Amino acid sequence: ISPKIVTCDFKDLPGNILNNFLKDDPTSVVQMETLAAGQFLLLPQSFGNIYLGETFSCYVCVHNETNQPVQSVSIKADLQTSSYRIPLTTQQNTAPLMLDVDETLSDVIHHEVKDLGTHILVCEVTYMSNYNTLASFRKFFKFEVMKPLDVKTKFYNAESDEVFVEAQVQNITSGPIILEQVSLESSTQFSVKSLNEDSDGFSVFGDVT
Predict the structure, then answer these.
(1) Which residues contact 19 (CB under 8 A, 6 or more apart)?
(2) How many helices (DSSP H) and strands (DSSP E) are in the chain?
(3) What pLDDT, in 10s, does the model give residues 32-87?
(4) Helix, strand or coil for residue 58?
(5) What is the pLDDT of residue 147?
(6) Angle subtended at Cα 51 by Cα 12 and Cα 177, rounded to the nearest 5 degrees
(7) Domain limits of the chain?
(8) Closest-CA residue to 40 (of 3, 70, 10)
(9) Where in the numbering of this chain does the Trafficking protein particle complex subunit 13 N-terminal domain appear (predicted)?
């Protein structure tokens, strides 16, 4: 059972009070305080979808469950797409370690996803076997990167040689999205004027909540 995580944006009324409580929790992971302890113990083979532009975060942990130390333990984590492979873990450039009984080796990885489609997180653990030979095993975790927004445009050519552009932005995710800014960046041959506000600075669409 995962504990309840209560957090909010720093601009909200509680400010940073709730987030500071999470940071002081002994079960929290650094830079991943909003991830409950029960949620980072195991990553399922397919854990759902993530949207383009979001940051994929993962806690990778190797635990020595044997009754003897394990030599030369190292972690490697890569993110594989249909066209490239990205190394993610910060442990790849460190020397292999010895894990005593019940000891763990862990790493927290973050990556902003910039491509749509299927992504596969490849985790590989290398260690020294009882026969003094290097051994390794891999785990694969697949997820889909989805498109969060759909943009449709319409162009109107006026007799005054002006071009009117209408853009419809649709949220196609399963939850709400807050748009901080929507703007049109034109080429140097055009000058752009927004028609979303009247001369008094009020939105032509009325009050938006």
Answers:
(1) 7, 8, 10, 33
(2) 1, 10
(3) 555 554 444 455 555 667 889 888 888 888 888 878 888 888 888 899 988 888 88
(4) strand
(5) 92
(6) 35
(7) 1-36, 37-146
(8) 3
(9) 3-145
> Strands 134-146 and 46-51, how do they pair?
parallel
Structure tokens at 118: 């299927």
- How far apart, in Å, are the Cα atoms of 61 and each of 21, 42, 127, 129? 24, 9, 14, 19
Q: Please, which residues bridge with residue 46 across strands?
A: 142
Lookup: tokens for 200 = 């008094």
CA of residue 63 relative to chain centroid, distance: 25
> Domain 37-146 maps to which CATH number in 1.10.10.10, 2.60.40.10, 3.40.50.2300, 3.30.559.10?
2.60.40.10
CA–CA dist 145, 139 (Å, integer): 19
